[in-house]
Each structure stands twice: as C-alpha cells, then as structure tokens.
Design brief:
The structure holds 2 protein chains of 2 kinds.
Chain A (H helix, E strand, L loop, with lengths): L1 H41 L15 H7 L2 H32 L6 H9 L6 H12 L5 H7 L16 H26 L3 H9 L4 H12 L1 H17 L2 H6 L11 H10 L4 H33 L1
Chain B lengths: L1 H40 L3 H5 L13 H8 L11 H31 L5 H10 L6 H13 L6 H24 L4 H9 L4 H12 L1 H17 L2 H6 L7 H9 L8 H32 L5
Helix pairs in contact in B: 1-13, 3-13, 4-7, 4-10, 5-7, 7-10, 8-9, 10-13, 12-13
The chains are: A mainly alpha, B mainly alpha.
C-alpha cells in the first residue's frame, strides 16, 4: 500500500515536468539552438550551402560594406521613426475621441481595428492599387478638376518608402488605439471631474494629466510597434518589392534575398544576427521589467 | 444667465460635432481600401481602365472572382487560388489545434504545478514571442530538409506549431493564474490526478482563452508569408505566397480586378473570424502588452 502511494507521489512529482519537456525541447532547439546555428553560419564562409568553418567577422565586414545594406538600415530607421510617430499620434487621438462616451463605439472600434486581421500581403496589394498614379488616387483627384495634382510616390525611389509608411500606419493604428483605450479606461474619472471643477478645459486636462498617466501604454505600444517595424517583410515585398531599384530595401528583405536569391548565405546570416540583436536590445529589457513588475504585484 | 447657459450648450454641441466629425472621417479612411478592393473586384477590366476607381461598378460582374479562384496563373500552373486556399486550410487547422492544445497544458503546468526553475522556463519561452524569424530560417530549412519535410504542408504545420507555443503558453498561463489554486487543491484531495484536473476542472473554465488562442493562431498562421515563401515552392505554397505571385505578374495588361478579387479571397477567412469574434481578437492582440 505504502509503495503504491509513493509510486503515485513520484508520478505526480515528475509528470508535470515530463509533459512540459517536449515544448521546452522544441523551443530550445527552434529558438536558442537555431539562433546559435545562424550565429555560427554568420562567422563562416558559407555561400550557397552552409559551411562550418570559421572566418571571424569577415561576413559582418562584408555586410556593412554593402551599399544595399546601408540603404536597408537607413530605410529601417526612417520607416521606424515615421511609422511609430504617426501610428501613435493617430492611435492616441482615436482612443481619446472614443473615450468621450460616443455612440456606436463598438462599431467604430471594429472599423479602426479590422486591418489588423488582414495579411500584410493583402494590405500591400490593396495599397499598391490605390497608390498607383495611372488609375488610383492621383487620377481620381485629377478627374475631380485638380489637374495638376501629382501623387506618384510609389514610382519614385526617393519617396517610395513613405508609401510603405502609409500602408503600415493604416494597418497598425487600431492596435495602438486598442492599447491606449485600455489604458484610458483604467484611469479614475474623478481626476477629470476634479480638474474640470478647477476650470481646466478638456484638451488641457488630456495633455497635462491624462497622457502622462498613460506611460505604461506608451511603453507597450512603442516596443511592440518597433518589433513590427524591424520584422516587416511581407508588406514591403507586396507593396514595392523592395523597389523601385532597391529604394525600399529593408533588413528583412535584404536578409531574404541575400540568403535565398544571391547565394550569400554568410552575409544573410550576419544580417539576420544584426536584426536579432536589435530586437533583443528592445525586447529583453521590456520583458524583464514586465515580469518583475508582475511579480511585485502578486 | 440664460445666454451663459446657451453658449455653454453651444460649445458642448460644437465639441460633439468635432468628435463625431473626426471619428467618421477616420472611419472613412480605414474603410476606403476595403471598399476599393470590393468595388474593383466587381468591375470589368475595361471599366477599370476607363478610369473608374472609387465609384460603384456600372455592371456588377463576378468574372474576376471566378478567374482568381479557378483560372489565374501562378507560376506555370493556371488553376487559380483554389489549391492554395486548400493548402492554407490543411496547414492552419492542425497547427491551430496543436499549438493551442500544447499551450493549454503548458499554461496549466506553469501555474498549478510549479517547480523550481519553472519561471525561468517561462521566461525562455516568452522570448520566442518576439523572435525575428529571420534568425532561425536557415537552420529550420536545413532541419526540414533532413526530416524530408521541406516543401510540404506537414513541414509548415511543424514550424507554425513550434513557434506558436510561446504565444499560446503565454495566453493560458496568464489566464490560469487567475483561477484560484484552492480549486485544483480541492480536486486533488478528492483524488483527481494531473490529467483529470486538467480536463475536468481547468479546460471547462478556460473556454474564453481557448477562443482567444485559436483566433490569434488562426490569424497569424493564415497570414504568414515568411515561412511559406522560405520553405515551400510551387504547388505546396500557402495562399499568401500564391497571392503575391498573382499580383507580381508583369506580363500583359495588369488585371487589377483579378488582383483585388484574389486579395479578397485571401482576406475573407480572417475577416470573417474577426467579424464573428472581434472581442476575442482584441484580447489576443493586447495580451502581448498586458502582463500576467
């Protein structure tokens, strides 16, 4: 009797770890081992097939000497700054407007958010059609009587990146709005009432009291949007195919074409490691602080 | 006194006007691309090239939809999107079920059967939510090749399940942590074991988060492009890859109506899920930002 009990105890002791272990192994291999593997390739002379030799930082030096990579990094920076600034501004504006006890709030929220359900390929396809100067927005405005109106950004190397920004903002604003709205709903309304009694106008109350209280929401939005922007790949491919020329090249598209199209596996792996390090520099401190805060709350 | 009340009412009215005006203008901006996609897909190509962009079609035709579904050329095959739509279904259904199931049991263990180091494991899993997949594509291609799974649907199911576990575990862990431990302890005293508690105590209580997880995974996997384009080619591609191929055909007169119909076909499954269960979709979306 006693031995069966202890058998059962031992089983309940080990069973959870046993059931969890396949996931741990899968994630260990799929995430950590594979990262190490990519890291190794980035230090090797691999071109078409992986080679497991060691050439030091040669591929990284080659990477940073590639003008195309330089374009990609500059584009990523420009894109991230504009994408974040505009998405946050519009998302916050919509959230504040929706928080004014409006009718049909549920319906409006759904309208702002539905693009998040779409694939970036769908978004890119739609905006490619809208932004094309021959038959799209430019033509509509011309037909309305403003014949001098020109909106050919997507065909010009110096402006095509802004088209990617427009489509990305369109797709992601709802996400920023949802997080800001959740933040606003968590704020005690008596603060607003008290400030109103003091005679402050609503815009001022928002600017100087409410928005500063949304700090955690801002942090989340900034981190998650930066992550979206670093890995954005599908949208660029569908909207501009990294062109015209390679004017809208991004690190993600660079990595893909170097690895799978141009037989530069080592350079591709080096670019992937650069992307990973950028993401880790943003995400790891964020996760750390989130986890620590939640531990303090419990 | 009276005029003061009047002016207060007027400024209130103006404020409301401004709020509704802005909200409606923004709503129009967000709906415009969907509108343009739908009306373009219902027009004939001649009407489109005659310069009709935002207007309603003069004569509604489903020709473009038929073409996109059954005849459009992707590479050398001209079978339309249908086979790729089926590929995506065959990929998404097992991957959603597997990743949600695994996430549920992981979340259960990480909250109700904690052991030394389990928090560390959770942290390790969590980074997987934010992994830029470019960093693992190369080795994954090698592994799929050596498992003889490259270019197959089961291969994609495996990839999506492995990289989905992080998110689904996060969902369930954050949900189960709100269920009081007394519940599982009482069941244990009644003699229920590890699996019994999971199936008859935890799962029945977890319905909302199961829906959240399924919707999130469905949307992510259906919309995936990077894995599809990296690990498959030709006939085994998912729909996003096929759509991109249709749109990037450069030969002949561009068939914008077929492009838009194809984009709508690729978008409809996730849009339907969003319309039916938008509430749960939002919860999944904000879960990455809300701590447990």
């Amino acid at each position: 009797m006693r031995s069966t009990l202890s058998m059962r105890d031992r089983l309940t002791h080990w069973l959870p770890r046993l059931v969890l272990s396949p996931s741990l192994v899968a994630v260990f291999i799929g995430v950590y081992l594979f990262i190490a593997w990519t890291g190794w390739i980035s230090l090797s002379s691999s071109k078409m097939v992986p080679k497991y030799d060691f050439v030091g930082l040669e591929q990284y030096i080659r990477l940073w000497a590639t003008p195309r990579w330089e374009t990609a990094v500059v584009n990523l920076f420009l894109f991230t700054v504009l994408f974040l600034a505009i998405t946050i501004a519009i998302g916050l504006l919509i959230a504040i407007l929706l928080d004014q006890r409006v009718r049909a709030e549920g319906f409006l929220r759904a309208v702002y958010l539905y693009p998040m359900a779409l694939s970036f390929i769908v978004t890119g396809t739609a905006w490619k059609w809208i932004l094309n100067p021959d038959l799209g927005v430019e033509k509509v405005v011309n037909d309305l009587g403003w014949s001098g109106f020109v909106f050919d950004w997507i065909t010009r190397p110096d402006t095509a990146i802004y088209c990617v920004v427009i489509a990305a903002v369109w797709q992601s604003t709802g996400f920023a709005m949802a997080i800001f709205l959740a933040g606003l709903r968590g704020i005690d309304t008596s603060i607003i009432k008290a400030a109103q009694i003091e005679g402050a106008g609503l815009p001022r109350i928002y600017m100087s009291i409410i928005v500063p209280m949304l700090r955690p929401a801002f942090l989340s939005v900034i981190v998650l949007l930066s992550y979206i922007s670093i890995k954005s790949f599908d949208l660029v491919l569908a909207l501009t195919n990294a062109g015209p020329g390679n004017a809208t090249e991004m690190p993600s598209t660079f990595m893909f074409s170097a690895t799978f199209r141009r037989n530069q596996m080592g350079v591709g792996a080096a670019s992937a490691m650069m992307m990973l390090m950028t993401v880790a520099a943003i995400i790891v401190p964020y996760l750390y602080s989130e986890l620590r805060e939640s531990r303090n709350e419990h | 006194m009276n005029t003061e009340a009047n002016s207060a009412r007027r400024s209130h009215l103006l404020g409301r006007l401004f709020i509704y005006g802005s909200l409606l203008a923004l709503a129009a901006f967000y709906l415009m691309p969907l509108w343009v996609m739908i009306v373009t897909s219902l027009k004939s190509l001649d009407e489109i090239y005659a310069g009709s962009f935002v207007g309603l079609p003069k004569a509604i035709t489903f020709e473009a939809w038929e073409k996109a579904w059954g005849q459009a050329c992707i590479g050398t095959a001209c079978d339309g999107l249908r086979p790729y739509f089926i590929n995506s279904l065959l990929m998404v259904i097992p991957a959603v079920i597997l990743s949600t199931g695994i996430g549920a049991i992981n979340g259960y263990i990480l909250t109700k059967w904690r052991f030394p180091g389990s928090n560390f494991f959770f942290g390790m899993l969590l980074f997987g939510c934010f992994l830029p997949f470019q960093a693992v594509i190369l080795p994954m291609a090698q592994l799929l090749g050596s498992l003889r799974l490259s270019g197959t649907i089961p291969g994609l199911v495996l990839v999506h399940t492995v990289y989905g576990i992080s998110f689904t575990t996060l969902f369930f862990r954050n949900y189960f942590i709100t269920i009081p431990d007394e519940l599982t302890r009482a069941a244990q005293i009644d003699g229920a074991g590890f699996f019994r508690i999971f199936f008859s105590v935890m799962l029945p209580a977890a319905l909302p988060i199961i829906v959240v997880s399924c919707i999130w995974q469905f949307t992510q996997i259906w919309n995936d492009f990077l894995f599809g384009v990296s690990f498959t080619a030709g006939q085994s591609s998912p729909i996003t890859v096929a759509l991109n191929n249709i749109v990037n055909v450069t030969m002949g007169r561009k068939q914008y109506n077929v492009d838009m119909a194809a984009a709508m076909i690729a978008a409809i499954p996730t849009l339907v899920v969003y319309i039916v269960a938008g509430r749960y979709f939002v919860r999944g979306l904000t879960a990455g930002a809300v701590k447990g």
